[in-house]
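Note to self: keep these together.
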Amino acid sequence: MTSALSDLLILDFSRVLAGPYATMVLADLGARVIKIEQPGLGDETRQWGPPFTEDGRSAYFIAVNRNKQSVTLNLKHPDGQAIARTLAQRADVLIENFLPGTMARLGLSYDDLRIVNPRLIYCSITGYGQYGPDAHRPGYDTVIQAEGGLMSITGDPDGPPMKTGVAIADITTGLYATTSILAALHYRTLSGEGQYIDLALFDVQLSWLANVASAYLISGQPPRRYGNAHATIVPYQPFAAADGYIMIAVGNDRQFARFCQVLDRPEWVTDERFATNPARVINRERLIAAIAEIIAREPVAVWVEKLHAADVPCGPVNDIPTALHSRQAQARAMVQQIDGIRMVGPAPVFSATPATIRSAPPVLGADTEAVLAEFGYSAEQIRRFRAEGIV
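Structure:
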């Protein structure tokens, strides 16, 4: 089976979430990823749990480390640094998320490695980038959500600021890393040259504020929290039905007209308070209260059936088990199992080069001997490295 990135070798010096998520996506697309970990400890998420598998792998680590090989390497030892340079000579991509300056102190910076491999794509992920007044600070997802404005617009209007349920600054930075790396690889195809990518969680957080940031930059008015409602579209929020919650997303006036028919309120279509979306936004409290009273009368399934039949966008507010076991998730193979471990499957579906799960997340150091032998180290050298704590 052909994979889109099967000719690429990626060295993954990153830990926790943003970097490992990026390299997992690239690995799903076929790239070979060698994960470099500290001997005896490894990626700290190996200890983040419970839950754990029977052989001690944490669910957190499993989430972002499939399709990788694990090589343990003591980067504080000169021989460990030398091994890393040997691996980098043949790599297409290197990704790391140490504090700025750390890789330079180890002799493994982009400037160091491009001497031995000028085609190398080198991606650094940090909290605040390689320069600026906060560059020295470590990056933590929830702090970035706070400082980057996201928490200020998340949560109930009268409640405290809220973080998202997933470490979204990390995940989106991982996605930015994948697209940036692929763009750099395309440029390398054209020019033959590698390059350096400086990615900051803070920058990424600001970049995907999207319409919310744009609204402020245009109006000068600081955005506020709307809870689960939308700042500029009404009705566009969950409502309590008789047995649960349903999300209703009426995106335009045509959909609103159909929505009114389902609710048996055709008069709303010509009511000047509700006839257009700008009017509905201005009069949201009156309209939302009236909708809520009607939706509460019937179960979620009844409303979903009626609204889908009328082509009004809606869906039940599912919990995670329901979402993962839904018929749509099953049809799209979004839950897969390998080596007895269930995990969320790759999102993209390619017609010619499928994204695949080829191997479960590795046990710490499982591939050290095989990889070092492949790169020219003898069995005697590897035994010495092991005895001296280098691998």
